[in-house]
Amino acid sequence: MSFMNTIREAYSKNKGPGVRKANTWLHTLTGFFLGWIFYLIFFTGTFSFYREEMMLWAWPESHLSTAAEVQDFSSIGSYLDTYAQDSPQWSIMMPSDRSPITKVRYYDEGERPSKHGGHNVTIDSATGEQIDSRDSRLMSKMVQAHYMLFGMGKHLGLTVVGIITMVMFVALISGVIIHRKIFKDFFTFRPKRGQMSWQDMHNVTGVVALPYHFVFIFSGLLLTVFLLNPWGIQGAMEGDEKAFRELNGGKMGLTIPDMPLNPVTRLPVTEGTSAVLNSIHSQWNERQDGKIAMIMFSNPGTPKQQIVIRGERNNDLASGAKAPSWSFNAEGELVKATQPAPPPSSIIAFKNILEQAHQQLYAGPIARAIYFLGGLLGCIMIATGSIMWVQKREKRKRNAAPTKSVLRAKFLNVATIVGLPASMLIAFWANRIIPAGLDMRMNLELFTWYGAWVAMFIHAYYVGSDKAWRQQTQLIVLLSISLAIYNIFIQYPLLGIGSGFTWLQVPLMIKLIDISFIAIAAVALYCLKFMPKKEREVQLEETVNA
């Protein structure tokens, strides 16, 4: 088989004494077999730094809801009492600095509450009125692909990604070892030199963002460590994961029997949902700094009712950046208060810091922008490594037919490096043009993304990699620039939102996302200058038959 030939080739060319030769073989093989999945994980992970902003972008009907906090809960309470009175759970996600809208989720009678179930309602934070927003979870599914890939359950997906992350860490370490002049590579770039240019770009992007790569790959591995190695908990805690969480400060925090000053002490549950919500709002503003993050009702309107108020996450990474919470019973009495617990040991503190650095739940705009840039450099590092692997083997056999491994790698490079972003842009267009009230529109968005990416693989296979590079990059240019034009000039008049040039009134982050599409088109146009214009006259079928 050609893949086995690739293994033998890499080993034979780097066998012999020396640590560098052994790691060259290891680095080549880990990158060759999993480089395309590395790229998917890095690309979607980079995208996820702005998941809240992209989720808001996916709901254009809510772009003019810019209030910093809910002013009046009466409309929200009336809505829940009218449309969700038999629901087993309500949750109200309050506006934040990153997303100025209020989101309400409730479930049908008898439905089990889950993260991705129920009905989602978007509320204008200034008026408390419902916004007829489209049903879209496209962005959350794109983020899920970062840590679960596709078509897998949570447990299996996390396990598979954990194993891949371990291999990625091996590839990173071996890549550092084989660098003889790692500091010189930081300043070396030779443009328009073919394979040397790809080598330099691979080295520069790897060295410049090396601390980023180490932190994020290692912390990603830590997030799955107990899935990959559960025997420690089983041995020390007899498999009791709940006891293990409590030992590490609890899932939510440390229970405090009598906090010195509770922001909310008692709720008027007999006066209705609107009175409860407005009471929470007024008491909180009088006694507590910061904002409410979420209010959740379990078994609302029944003797088993429980109300939980959760504050914003703190910035203490060592404690896990957890949030304080307060729980009330059916009579409106405070029965439990939790606050983030300090880490029980320096080892747990170190683990918490790395995990929170990976998840970026605490990060401000500047930190998020820096990490986003580091993620892009990681994508370029992986992409240039995959391209360089192909170019090296084509250079060795310039006058001979390329092997099946090289041809497969070429079309996989195209369909992954440019095909993935092209398919995501097609899915963004689907978000805009699929009617808001259409049944199953959420699934149609997802099927559009999956189908578009499969189409990129098929296209690259049948037209040849050189043509596919140009055509799929041209598609990125067309999709990006047209999406920016549509978002800025067309979509708001079509939706009947705002007056005048409405785009100027939307939040700054929405403007930056739309402008970024123009930047993507410009980068893609620049890349077209360096792409081959003629297909090498060797087809996959000829090589297979040979």
Automatic annotation (TrEMBL):
Q: Where are the transmembrane segments?
A: 25-50, 156-183, 204-228, 369-390, 411-434, 446-463, 475-494, 506-528
Q: Is Transmembrane helix tagged as a keyword?
A: yes
**Source superkingdom:** Bacteria
Q: What is this protein called?
A: PepSY domain-containing protein
Question: Would the keyword Transmembrane helix be found if you checked this record's keyword annotation?
Answer: yes
- The organism named in the record is Shewanella japonica
Keywords assigned by UniProt, alphabetized: Membrane, Transmembrane, Transmembrane helix
Q: Report the InterPro entries cross-referenced here.
A: PepSY-ass_TM
Report any Pfam family annotated for this entry.
Answer: PepSY_TM
